[in-house]
Write a structure and sequence with these properties.
The chain is 69% helix and 0% strand. The longest helix has 27 residues.
Length: 246
């Protein structure tokens, strides 16, 4: 059994402060022109982005009904993160309970923009991330997916919670492997908040056609499309190429 001192040291190590000491990085930016280029490439790659559009529509239509929200989230999660759930589905009843118990917090986050994310939101974000992550864990073995948790939170509050995956997180010096995923997600949200603020300022003075096209989706979704093409697609191709050479 760990002593009180050892417990205190472990808590400090895996706190946000400890995480940032291990993974501190310079502030990143995404030029608006580069964002547009990657988003257009994404729309060529996924011309309809059907699962996202259907899920966001259903979440909007069924907001406030936890049972139906489970169905809305499932539409996207079981496709986008199908590789994880091929070993077994999550506990839908647990997710329904989770959503119902946290409806007030979700209502508040859903109305907000990531620009308003501050230190006072970190505890609530971490708590909600952990609850959603546990509810979305596979029933068969209890394994959780930080990717599913991030995607679900984004669908529930698309202008406040960013999306990530195993390739995007470390690209922003916010890896969750070997870390507390909720803490890594808070650090990631901090980083994306700064990037979103920079892009929003650029968008405000952008040409009308560019502004109109990029604004057809939430800015956080556009950032995710950029990240997907910039980091996820090359990593997946590289992984596939390595498998071919074995």
């Amino acid at each position: 059994m760990l002593t009180n001192e050892e417990l205190a040291e472990a808590a400090k190590k895996y706190s946000l402060e400890g995480f940032l000491k291990r993974h501190s990085s310079a502030v990143k930016t995404i030029p608006l022109a580069e964002l547009e280029n990657e988003c257009r490439a994404f729309e060529e790659w996924e011309p309809r982005d059907s699962m996202y559009r259907v899920s966001t529509f259903l979440v909007r239509e069924w907001w406030g009904d936890p049972a139906k929200l489970v169905d809305a989230l499932s539409v996207l999660l079981l496709i986008w993160n199908g590789a994880f759930y091929r070993y077994g589905n999550f506990d839908e009843a647990a997710l329904e309970t989770n959503l119902g118990d946290n409806q007030a917090a979700l209502n508040a986050f859903r109305e907000r923009d990531i620009a308003s994310f501050g230190e006072g939101d970190e505890k609530g974000t971490g708590r909600l991330f952990n609850l959603v992550s546990k509810a979305l864990g596979r029933k068969v073995d209890g394994v959780e997916s930080p990717v599913s948790a991030g995607k679900a939170l984004h669908l529930l509050a698309p202008n406040f919670f960013p999306l990530w995956d195993q390739y995007i997180a470390p690209a922003y010096d916010c890896p969750y492997m070997g870390e507390l995923a909720s803490v890594a997600y808070i650090a990631f949200t901090r980083t994306i908040r700064a990037i979103a603020a920079h892009l929003a300022a650029e968008l405000a003075s952008a040409e009308e056609l560019q502004k109109e096209w990029l604004s057809r989706k939430p800015l956080l979704k556009r950032i995710d499309e950029y990240n997907y093409m910039k980091y996820t697609v090359p990593a997946m191709k590289q992984k596939k190429d390595r498998a071919k050479t074995k």
